[in-house]
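Minutes, methods subgroup
Present: GH (chair), OT, SY

1. OT presented the first of two proteins processed in the latest run. Sequence and structure tokens recorded below as shown on screen.
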Amino acid sequence: NNAQDNSGNEHHGILFGNASVKPDSGRKNGGVMLDGDGYYVQIPSFDRNLTGITITAWINGKSTGKSTGIILSRDPTQTIGINYKEGTGEIGYHWNNNSASTWNYATKLDIPVDQWSFVALSIEKEKSTLYVSNSSGLSNSINSIKHSTQLSDSAWRIGSDSFTADRYFNGTIDEVLIFDRGLMQEEVRGLYDYSL
């Protein structure tokens, strides 16, 4: 059982637990269905240094009660990716050798429950920008701090954070894209507009 990488880069995902991809489960095609209890998709590490990154996805979450990875690569010192923050339903991110200046940054971008939302993270050297779509359109939050080069040498998880045994996403994730550079706001908006 796997989740196909349609980019041509052969980063196909392996489904764990009872994670499933069904043709009618996604926003457009087949999204991965996760139950918040041990289900996730794993994709290979990039095995290279990243000076920036952009991660986008469409998500439809059932609850926001606990911290969880949305798309995350974690090792003891260099965690990279997008996450839910515990108890708030707010989107967050990890970078800078797992620094609290990233994962503790208050984005004030809440992810709606039980509806499809576009989420994105763009890391550049001098800032990060997180995006969430809601009924008003696409909102963003900018963390204007320096972002160091990160080594991506751990597998990526879609719908899970391996930090503890209970950090699993409950809902559906679709249309995951990962770029090895920080996209500018116009480019992210273009991806969002194109996927509507």
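2. SY then presented the second protein from the same run.
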Amino acid sequence: PDDRAAYGIEDQFLVGNAILVAPVLERRSRARRVYFPAGSGWYDLVTGTRYEGGGWVEIAAPLERSPVFLRAGAVIPTQPVVQHTGEAVEVITLEVLPGGEVESFLYQDAGDRPLEPYRRVHFHQGGGATLRMEPSGSFAAPHRQLRARFWDVDPPARVEVDGAPVEWQYDAERRQAVVELTPPVASTSVHIVPKP
């Protein structure tokens, strides 16, 4: 909203404040120019490549996918595709992107009546290496597992949840650390401890 250069762009859009979609609108085109709003970096959802905001970049756009980018500093909840809201979701993945801070939330309810019980989880991340989750509300989390994927990090020495070491996986090609968690019932912190 603070980048006036983005006001006149009509062939790409934001979903919320942290997801930038730049569809290919020209027939037979396999690339397109994308404007990245100023004020933060942006990560390609598929390749993990980081782009700095405030300028235009020519982006490959193969037929298999639309260019989608995630704002640096955000925590973005994702889930597998479902066919209807009543379909069970076993795992929610939190994409934790370093660089700045973007306020992020996950809101959940049964979706079938007004003023129903809800659950809201507020996410805070610090520099891409720490994630704090603060749940509120009385709705029981419908998923059984939470996965935190920390983007653009070096291989950690260890990963801790509330100060206790936990198991983790590391994808060296994408530079991502992945931690399996249970949905928080109280304030919870996940910390990527760097190697000395």
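Chair's summary of item 2: DSSP finds no helices and 18 strands in the chain.
Next meeting: continue with the remaining queue.
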